[in-house]
Design goal:
Layout lengths: L2 H10 L3 E5 L2 H11 L5 E4 L3 H6 L1 H5 L4 E4 L8 H9 L3 E4 L3 E3 L4 E5 L3 H7 L4 E7 L3 E2 L2 H19 L5 H5 L14 E5 L8 E7 L6
Helix pairs in contact: 5-6
């Protein structure tokens, strides 16, 4: 990874890039970045879970994450997360030109990332970096989605084969794909924390 090149690409698009040698350093940065008492939303990101951030944040902030509540309560948590002051997530892929690609089933995550939450923090392992946009979309569909479908016990072809079949399954987790080219005018800051470790899928 060329840190300088990627940093310039992200900054040129309006993102705030930071680079860390490991997930622990990134987590420490976030704990200092988000003020005590703030509200924080998050989805079911494996990358975020691997940092151990959410339990630490919850000690002094209001954290809304559907991954830690029963399924029947998730609707309310989705809404609260989408209206939080901060949102912590990862990306399914990041291009060398600084674009962020995500693919979702319920779209609670991409909805919050596109509109509503003023401060966004992406935590991205080097395994998510791709040379261009076609490769980023390919990665989202044929690496991240199948692994997540299998993790979530979804009844989809990709959970069995490991490859996207562009299915119409009721369990499909590839219902919405987003490409963030720039932060929107309603967002105060979008931080992209790149970690020199493999994180998530």
């Amino acid at each position: 990874m060329d840190r300088e090149k990627l940093s310039e690409a992200l900054a040129r698009r309006g993102f705030k890039p930071y680079f860390f040698d490991n997930a622990a350093q990134a987590a420490e940065f976030v704990l200092k970045l988000i003020p005590n008492g703030a509200s924080v939303g998050s989805g079911g990101s494996v990358s975020v879970a691997q940092t151990g951030l959410l339990p630490e944040l919850a000690k002094t902030r209001a954290v809304y994450a559907h991954s830690v509540v029963p399924e029947e309560k998730r609707g309310a948590v989705y809404q609260a997360a989408a209206q939080a002051e901060w949102y912590i997530t990862s990306a399914n892929a990041v291009t060398e030109d600084g674009e962020l690609v995500n693919i979702d089933g319920a779209a609670n995550r991409v909805g919050a990332l596109c509109f509503g939450v003023p401060n966004i923090v992406y935590i991205v392992g080097v395994n998510k970096l791709t040379p261009n946009l076609p490769a980023a979309i390919e990665r989202a569909r044929n690496v991240a989605a199948p692994l997540n479908a299998k993790r979530l016990n979804k009844k989809t072809p990709c959970a069995v084969t490991g490859k996207c079949a562009y299915c119409n399954s009721p369990d499909c987790i590839c219902n919405v794909t987003t490409i963030m080219h720039h932060p929107t005018k309603y967002q105060k800051a979008v931080y992209v924390l790149v970690v020199e470790e493999n994180l998530g899928y």
